[in-house]
């Protein structure tokens, strides 16, 4: 019963938070954004005391059930472990303290020192967010486009096609490598990542030692059949000594369901029967690793997974053809400009604040309907979401990124407030402007500016035939990027938006 309840709750949370990342219609976050906000690290970064207290109480009562029910990366490891169909495939191993605790110390140092890339690389929720955004969402969108194509042929509007594009090649590579590493380690040793690398698992392990409910042995009923140890994905049950390492147990219930003699119970107190005293494993340092890979029966599955991911990456890397109104000429894609100051979303207050609190989960990237957010490729701020306007601009009526951010990196704001937040300012690049390079009239930037911050003026007031060029009023410009997006200059825009180091409201 314990195992069935745990699996049902795990499926509910995993499907919900995965849909939150996959959804591109703008509806899922109204119902499911709370699932992101109850993740441990985002709650810590947002100083969400209520959620943190609830998770602490949950662990003190039930043990590390957070890792097997709420954490999407933990549940995904269970799914990956099921690819290995071999029965009784695990074995007890001692806690790898020499790796586990130094990783936690390194993680804390990264947070304090502001090394966001390292912090985001180790954080479990962030790791799953990268996988969901960079790998799973493109697959989901491609499947949607197939349905959209079929619906179009049937004169139906039930589905519509969407753009599938490469948001960041380095972050896609990191996501694919993370997925492959997790797949291999889970296939071989179950919860290897959770109990050796994951900083959240290490923190919760301190509390889990004192949990009220635990998986407990009844030594009188135990026949030393070893099935509990062989089915424990956390490798934390030593059937020979009738002990459980509660710091690593995630209360999955596998051991209880496999025991045919009723020697294992999930309860609050030791069994009163003779010899039924509870023994809590005092683990020590060890270099012992999970059992080696036996057989190559699943090698073809892993090869298929890798090939599929590479194919998707290649498909997303292909240049999308964009036709002019007459359908006669192909437009050249714009090149992302090198900005002196990165653009961060409205509500992020400043680049420093955003970098300090962002967990790099990429939820804002996957939810952005205007395609202006993408992971940074800058080595110092790798995976930190930044804005760019080659595919759209930050529409004044859109507040979705602030609605879904679980870590407090983007402070919630309403629509009227957004129109007053100055995240950057437009800069005219004279050498790229088409009235000067092609000798034609333009004015797109001035016509589409929602704040009226751009007006067309004569380049040379003394010359009546002087071309009209844009002039920017930086005090009125909010940095939405409409001008940069609609600029016809290719491949380099003639007007770009530079970020403000500190956002301000007028």
Please give the alpha-carbon distance between the first and last residues: 59 Å
Across the major sheet, the strand order is: 1-4
Helix content: 40-55%
Shape: elongated
Indicate the low-confidence ranges by residue numbers.
Answer: 271-328
Portion in beta strands: 5-15%
What is the C-alpha radius of gyration, as a whole number of Å? 27 Å
What profile does the largest beta sheet have?
Answer: 2 strands, antiparallel
The structural class is mainly alpha
Secondary structure tally: strands: 10
Average of pLDDT: 87
Count of helical regions: 22
What is the strand and helix layout of this fold?
Elements: H1 2-22, H2 28-37, H3 40-45, H4 49-62, H5 65-69, H6 72-81, H7 97-113, H8 116-122, H9 124-153, H10 169-189, H11 192-196, H12 199-208, E1 214-217, H13 227-230, E2 237-238, E3 243-244, H14 254-258, E4 264-267, H15 299-317, H16 351-357, H17 363-367, E5 373-375, E6 385-387, H18 400-404, H19 415-418, E7 421-428, H20 434-437, H21 444-448, E8 454-458, E9 468-472, H22 482-486, E10 495-505
Antiparallel strand pairs: 1-4, 2-3, 5-6, 7-10, 8-9
Helix pairs in contact: 1-2, 6-10, 7-8, 7-12, 9-10, 10-15
What would you say this structure looks like, in words?
Helix 9 (124-153) crosses helix 10 and helix 10 (169-189) packs antiparallel against helix 15. 43% of the residues lie in helices and 9% in strands. It starts with a helix and ends with a strand. With 506 residues, it is mainly alpha-helical.
